[in-house]
Amino acid sequence: MAGLDTALTDVLGGKTAAALAKSLDLETVGDLLRHYPRRYDERGELTDLAHLRPGDQVTVLAEVRKVRRRPMRNRRGSIIEAVVTDGRGTLTLTFFNQPWRERDLVVGRRGLFAGKVTVFNRTRQLNSPDFRILGDAALDDGPGGGEVEEFAGALIPVYPASAAVPTWTIARCVALALEVFDPPADPLPAGLRARHRLMDLDTALRSVHRPADRGVLTAARTRLKWDEALPLQAVLAQRRLAAAARPGTARPARPHGLLAAFDAQLPFELTSGQREVGAVLAAELDSPHPMHRLLQGEVGSGKTVCALRAMLQVVDAGGQAALLAPTEVLAAQHARSLRALLGPLGRAGELDAAEPATRVALLTGALPAGARRQAQAEVASGAAGIVVGTHALLSEGVDFADLGLVVVDEQHRFGVEQRDALRSKGDSPHVLVMTATPIPRTVAITVYGDLEVSALRELPHGRSPIATSVVPAGEKPAWLERAWQRIREEVAAGHQAYVVCPRIGGDGSEPDAVDEQPRPDEDEDEDGRRAPLAVLDVEPMLASGPLAGLRLDVLHGRLPTEDKDRVMRAFAAGELQVLVATTVVEVGVDVPNATVMAVLDADRFGISQLHQLRGRVGRGSAPGLCLLVTDSPVGTPARDRLAAVASTLDGFELAELDLEQRREGQVLGEAQSGRSSFKLLSLVKDRELITTARAEAAVLVEADPDLAGQPGLAAAVAELVERERADFLEKG
Ligand code: ADP
Ligand code: MG
Questions:
Q1: Alpha-carbon distance 244 to 250, whole Å?
Q2: Is residue 270 within 6 Å of ligand 1 at its C-beta?
Q3: Between vectors from CA 319 to CA 315 and to CA 324, what angle results, nearest 5°?
Q4: Mutation test residue for ligand 1: of 305, 333, 463, 587, the one with most atoms within 8 Å of CB
Q5: pLDDT digits 0-9 by tens, 506-547
Q6: What is the residue with the minimal CA distance to atom 21 of ligand 1?
């Protein structure tokens, strides 16, 4: 008999087990049983053949309509051509020199056919597809009858498969494994299962592979989703609990300190969101346990001001604060803006310093040795209350006098391990992570589940709104001309413009290795689309055409750092009027005088990315304008996405939409997995389940931190932690 840990070699033939291990990475019975079907075909319903696209690797359920064998024209041997149908469309199957196939291809029978779609003579084909004719109850003469029937029920599981291991082989292996499978220990506590009416694990595993009907299938999938949600939420609850128990240093606010002086000199009123977040941060810093908080807010929502106020509270309490940015350029920019915000409060030791005052030290690899030594000395002595650098700051063994707070800016992939590394610096400093990418709640509690989350949802008053329009260059060329004219008008009024392209270009069409790639569009046929517009083609085109006479330059990830800096400085100083760039402008470029942005081939970018991009205009007092230029026709998913971006400025709403579209992009195509470690759980559709699991996990962990009373769940948690660690080591 077998359990989840039994090796597949003990259950299946050695050759089959080896194939499963090699092509699908399935080693144990548990791996196999958790290799869930991608979809289920109904015996009665055939696959819609009209939606197959050339190049797709597909498995279709269809009926054999016609079979003919003929000799090959120029060679010996024969070709079988079979036509299969869904009742409307057809698909031609061709087999070269496999005469025995003819016997299985009985007209009128149904089967699963797997292969890659090609087009020949304008008909869609599968060349030498793998196939399996389905046995049916009435005439049970299907191949393999008598052995394990892999498709037992009316719902036929279709598995994520590989060329070497087709879906029916997996189905047969699953059937064999289930025959010898003993009911496993259930990781979900019995009380929880009863509360949520969840199936036991054994039934769920059997049902997900061989469902009696759709109702049972749904119940099985729900139960198995809990297996994904609960251990993760339990890990996160344990981490939160451990963090809350970890000793730290309280950094109480001081009545007449730097923070009070800073607030008194602020040229604006804090928004109510900033005040709320400020109160939360102030209280957490004043606790003898380290803070672990994520602060979300759009670019320009005033996060930096919140962070600076927290840093000042720590400095007032005698500690130091470090601000970490993802790049040296951004670190330098942060140091400049912190110094500007602080004014004389940040010039301790200089002639015009205020009293009290501190210093802001910038510490990056780009510093000349002398300046670096001086900065290091200020950090080590504590003269610099605020230290700005890149993430390297912590790994490079820089000495702090008393590091009390670490603020991490703009870091989207700042994992648990990095946070751990960071805590080992100083005496468990408080940690504040800031992100400008709005994260839907389910993602936040999944990815950042060990952090508490705050958000700044409103922009400061007086901020001019950004108007966004879709410019359908294909249908209405005049609109594109108007777009260039708008840019000329803004420039004439003394403002500046961005033109963003999806690609750098220059030497052929090789992908832009440095900048983040726009998301490939899954909703559309890639065939026959022209290459995305490239910075190096667009700039000369504009300079000699619609924007002739203006001062243009290019910015992209392949430029040497000096050139990048030179261009950025020239743009910031207003010497350049139009910057033609890739998404490098997405992060942190801050030029308040830039008021208009044209995004070319906007359909090539993801929703959140477009939203992030347009945050670059309208940073000053003049209204911002964002033009989303596209060739995609009305009614296409790509065009709808752009319309959505144009219709709202709510980044959270757009983030939810983005997430939905990403997950739903995969309808008929095979492949596509590994987007997340979840197999069944969807961050979009299972919001409620995830939220409930989080609450359940918190209660369980609170009552029994090590889960000693729940060995099944404890094992699942341990496995998850191990996998996470392995992934991290692999990436690191
Ligand atoms: P973020 O870090 O979220 O991008 P910042 O803190 O850098 O945002 O703020 C963006 C700009 O808005 C800065 O110039 C800042 O001085 C200004 N600002 C911040 N808070 C307010 C406010 N409450 N009222 C007016 N302007 C503000
Ligand atoms: Mg900022």
A1: 13
A2: yes
A3: 85
A4: 305
A5: 764 444 433 333 433 333 334 456 788 999 999 999 999 999
A6: 460
